[in-house]
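Input sequence (132 aa), recorded before submission:
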Amino acid sequence: MKASHDATDRTRLDKWLWAARFFKHRTLATDAVEGGKVQLNGIRVKPAKDVKIGDRVDIQLTEARFSVIVTGIAEKRGSAGVAQTLYAETPESAAAREAAREERKLSATPGADLHGRPTKRDRRLIGRFTDG
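Predicted structure, token format:
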């Protein structure tokens, strides 16, 4: 599979997101666009909106936010190597993702202060609190 680099090529946004491997299934890409998790050139659009080379796509995944520039168009999903040629991540996006990764590393794990089951004393305190 070859990525196309002709400036007149266009494809649907949901199809491009799937081909660039941001989403595992095309329906997930469609749902993300409809849900406002993906913007094209700073504007919320529909999944059928055409993407062309040079467009900026902002993608909000679970914890990560990507801002990429479209550098290639593909109609079909290919290997990861081909998918990486379809876009170039902006330096600001890469720096923000790295900062968020470092922040998550330094933050405490939720529930780290809890150690196993409650003791008998803890259960009595919980009982007093819930029963009144």
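Checked by second reader. The helical segments are 13-19, 26-34, 80-84, 91-106, 120-131.
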